[in-house]
Design goal:
CATH class of one domain in chain B: Alpha Beta
Oligomer: heterodimer
Distance between the termini of chain A: 7 Å
Structural class of chain B: alpha/beta
Helix content of chain A: over 70%
Distance between the termini of chain B: 20 Å
CATH class of one domain in chain A: Mainly Alpha
Shape of chain B: globular
Number of helices of chain B: 20
CATH superfamily of one domain in chain B: P-loop containing nucleotide triphosphate hydrolases
Radius of gyration of chain A: 24 Å
CATH architecture of one domain in chain A: Orthogonal Bundle
Number of helices of chain A: 12
CATH topology of one domain in chain A: MetI-like fold
Strand content of chain B: 25-35%
CATH topology of one domain in chain B: Rossmann fold
Largest interface: A-B, 33 and 36 residues
Strand content of chain A: under 5%
Helix content of chain B: 25-40%
């Protein structure tokens, strides 16, 4: 198992390399550059800036220069936030995003699994229908609607929680709820479906036929099998949640890394975009690995060697 | 203990089971009376859909959510229908236990054998974990599982089908039950394994004295195994009595039909002057199991090793063997549907190694019919579209009207109403679907059809009709068949030459009569006896034990 994990991580190196190469050149294909403004800079100034950031070199040279720095663990300076390196920006923002996304994920898992299981056990009852209806609603309403609505109701009208900002523990509540709601809905639906299927399976019939108490039948024999599809969903979902959400961070004014991706791309802040891409890619690789290992831990038919 | 054979322990009165379906209520069981006395073996026999399993599901509180039951089921005087679940759970798994048809899925794939055997022991007997473990080990020894210590730690997927069924039997015996309900426990197993499992059940019944209620569609098992029989048809018991009486003097037409439904007849060999259509030599198929990108070495499975056959015009070669013997793989290799080695010649043309494009002109002559009449017909095409699809490829110049004519003719040939050609496959029964699959092959006027277990998913009475159909079209078009089946009775009736395979190799071959009546190899002898003389096998096992 350990050997498998190490092999998978080694296998991720070429993947990351491809992601980096592809993003690097793709970004350079986009017209414009980091120093294009409405008011054009003086030619001499622009030339100096380009020289300082090596933008006057041929693109392949810039590419190898970037790779060289990356190999030494240097993500380079931000082109727009002049006094910061990309490391500093991501180092400050990532803990915020992880804290928000991680909390949202945990809450979504707990509530989503609970709702999904209850709905499955009461299949086709009003409980089931209301869970499904709520879940469908939760998936369809976009976060750019939920976020300002929550901010308005709980922040402005009721003044129960901060409407935005990042300065007290209470600041986490509304963003976390916004992030968690669609995940709760998705997880509830997944768990409901897989639990219903598991309850109909032959081995659950066997457990019932052998007089095992209902709680044991459900928890031991149905739910463990029902978890498996949710776990494969959780890999990419966790990677997406932990690397921040541009909408939630912008609306609640949070210092996470989600907004860097969009802002960086719009500003042609090449190094910042590359840094964000690398973080996301690493998260995706790591969480997919975790999912596969969890799968093997839960299902003895899955073996890696 | 419990040897008073006159004591009624399980009594079913006027039981009715109804399912609420989107098409309205369906009555699966329509008022059935049945009973089991202590220590006796009772068989419930009937074809699929007769309601035989649903009675037991209803009695044990295992009906699907849309099922409803009325009537009475008592166990030693206690009413089970409507019993609160807590009280029912004291009886099921302890006093009355069940084993099911599907040994692959009836055990939970996520838990060890030990855990699954121990659960009911602990729930009903209140044993400590270590005492339960000792008991589980004892039970595995009782059902003759090799290396029981190690098997306790195994997961279901690490066991063979027969071993899994032994584990189920161990679970069933754990709490010393009064009654064991066995729902088609050997249907998914090979005949030799079936004989072993039935022998085991007989042995354990003798040792432990429980009654057995055996649900099956297989009359051979009933004859060898049961004291009394209930014959069911469409939700009703049509006849009941002692096994010998029913077999010797059936009074109901349905019972007579069931008894007569065993495949019969034989095919005379074709003359040595008939042309050889398909000539295969040294055919081998090796599956390469690839290792992962980083996980290094893969391994090889030799599925078929060095098999040859010579199929003459009008001939039927039967290929028999148990699961994993390579018989289906051989069929596919002959038609170049998977990569193989060796030499295959079709009417003078070596087709070995032909790719898809090169095979296309030969496909219409070399057709295939598959086992699963549910999976092999596209659910989104009408029957007419399904059977004429091949014409679009092989006779693209045909007009729509001409194709329609051919479809009507093909449907008539396989005994289906041509008026049904605009319907979809799900509207047809299993036997009808297999007719559609045959029509799809026949419409192209092939010379050779490879039939891969075409009758295995069907009831005996439907099987008989399909066999008759295959005989008719063979005669009408001078067709040659390669008939692949694990069902020896069907092969005996249909083929004039038989090849017995085991582990990818030919064990024995020859004219059907010789192979079946006078088998030479020990393996073929065992196979034939398990298939045609189960009673003798069981008796011999009993003698060997005593």
């Amino acid at each position: 198992m350990l050997g498998y994990a190490v092999r998978r991580l080694l296998g991720a190196i070429p993947t990351l390399f491809l992601v980096i190469t592809f993003s690097f050149f793709l970004m350079r294909v986009a017209p414009g550059g980091p120093f294009d403004r409405e008011r054009t800079l003086e030619a001499k100034v622009l030339e100096n800036l380009n020289r300082v950031f090596h933008l006057d070199r041929p693109i392949w040279e810039q590419y190898f220069y970037y790779l060289g720095n990356l190999a030494r663990g240097d993500l380079g300076p931000s082109f727009i936030y002049r006094d910061f390196s990309v490391q500093q920006l991501l180092g400050n923002g990532l803990p915020v995003s992880i804290q928000l996304g991680g909390t949202a994920l945990l809450i979504a898992l707990l509530i989503g699994s609970l709702l999904g299981t209850i709905a499955a056990l009461r299949q086709n009852s009003w409980v089931d229908y209301s869970v499904i209806a709520t879940a469908t609603f939760g998936i369809t309403v976009p976060n750019f609607v939920v976020a300002p609505l929550l901010s308005l109701i709980f922040g402005v009208w009721l003044s129960l929680l901060p409407a935005g900002g990042w300065n007290s523990p209470g600041s986490m509540v509304l963003p976390v709820v916004t992030l968690a709601l669609p995940q709760i809905a998705i997880i509830a639906r997944l768990i409901r479906g897989s639990t219903i299927e598991a309850l109909r399976s032959d081995h659950v019939r066997t457990a019932r036929a052998y007089g095992l108490p209902t709680r044991m039948v459900v928890v031991v024999h149905a739910l463990r099998a029902a978890c498996l599809p949710v776990i494969s969903y959780l890999g990419p979902a966790a990677a997406a949640l932990l690397t921040g959400s541009v909408v939630v961070e912008t609306i609640f004014g949070l210092p996470g890394i989600g907004r860097y991706f969009v802002q960086g791309a719009l500003n042609r802040d090449y190094t910042l975009v590359m840094g964000t891409v690398i973080i996301i890619a690493v998260f995706v690789v790591v969480f997919n690995l975790i999912v596969d290992l969890l799968y093997a831990a839960l299902d003895p038919r899955v073996r890696y060697d | 203990m419990k040897q008073d054979k006159s004591e009624r322990i399980f009594d079913i009165r006027d039981i009715r089971v109804t399912f609420d379906t989107p098409d309205g209520a369906v009555e699966a069981v329509r008022g059935v009376d049945m009973h089991v006395n202590a220590g006796e073996t009772v068989a419930v026999v009937g074809e699929s859909g007769s309601g035989k399993s649903q009675i037991m599901m209803a009695a044990m509180g295992l009906l699907a959510n849309n099922g409803a039951v009325s009537g009475s089921v008592t166990y030693r005087g206690q009413e089970l229908i409507g019993l609160p679940r807590g009280k029912l759970n004291k009886i099921r798994g302890a006093r009355i236990t069940m084993i099911f048809q599907e040994p692959m899925t009836s055990l939970d794939p996520l838990y060890t054998i030990e855990r699954q055997i121990c659960e009911p022991i602990r729930v009903h007997g209140g044993l400590s974990p270590s005492a339960a473990r000792r008991k589980a080990l004892e039970l595995l020894k009782l059902v003759h599982i090799p290396d029981p210590e190690r098997r306790l730690k195994s997961y279901p997927h690490e066991l063979s089908g027969g071993q899994r069924q032994r584990v189920m039997i161990a679970m069933a015996l754990a709490n010393d039950p009064d009654l064991l309900i066995a729902d088609e426990p050997t249907t998914a197993l090979d005949v030799t394994i079936q004989a072993e499992i039935l022998g085991l059940l007989a042995e354990l019944q003798k040792k432990l004295g429980m009654a057995i209620l055996f649900i099956t569609h297989d009359l051979g098992i009933v004859e060898a195994f049961a004291d009394r029989v209930y014959v069911m048809q469409k939700g009703l018991v049509v006849e009941t009595g002692g096994t010998a009486d029913i077999f010797e003097r059936p009074s109901e037409d349905y019972t007579k039909m069931l008894l007569a439904a065993e495949p019969e007849g034989h095919k005379p060999p074709v003359g040595a002057d008939r042309p050889i259509l398909l000539d295969a030599d040294g055919v081998s198929v090796t599956f390469h199991m690839k290792g992962g990108f980083f996980s290094g070495q893969g391994f090889e499975v030799k599925a078929v090793q060095n098999v040859g056959l010579r199929l003459r015009a009008g001939q039927t070669i039967g290929i028999v063997g148990e699961s994993g013997s390579g018989k289906s793989t051989l069929g596919r290799a002959l038609l170049q549907l998977l990569p193989s080695e060796g030499r295959v010649v079709y009417q003078g043309t070596p087709i070995q190694g032909f790719d898809r494009a090169a095979m296309r002109p030969y496909r219409r002559n070399l057709q295939m019919v598959f086992q699963d009449p549910y999976g092999s017909l596209s659910p989104r095409m009408t029957v007419g579209e399904i059977i004429t699809e091949g014409l679009l490829v092989h006779e693209p110049s045909l007009s729509g009207r001409e194709r329609e004519k051919r479809a009507i003719k093909a449907l008539e040939e396989v005994g289906l109403d041509p008026g049904t050609r605009n319907r979809f496959p799900h509207e047809f029964s299993g036997g009808q679907r297999q007719r559609i699959a045959i029509a799809r092959a026949v419409i192209l006027k092939p010379t050779v059809i490879v039939l891969d277990e075409p009758t295995s998913a069907l009831d005996r009475s439907v099987q008989k009709q399909i066999i008759a159909l295959l005989r008719d079209i063979q005669e009408a078009y001078d067709l040659s068949f390669v008939f692949i089946s694990h069902d020896l009775a069907v092969v005996k009736a249909l083929s004039d030459y038989a090849i017995v395979m085991k582990s990818g190799r030919v064990v024995e071959e020859g004219p059907t009569g010789e192979v079946f009546d006078n088998p030479q190899s020990d393996y073929t002898k065992d196979l034939m006896e398990a298939a045609f003389n189960l009673k003798r096998v069981l008796n011999r096992q009993a003698v060997a034990r005593a």
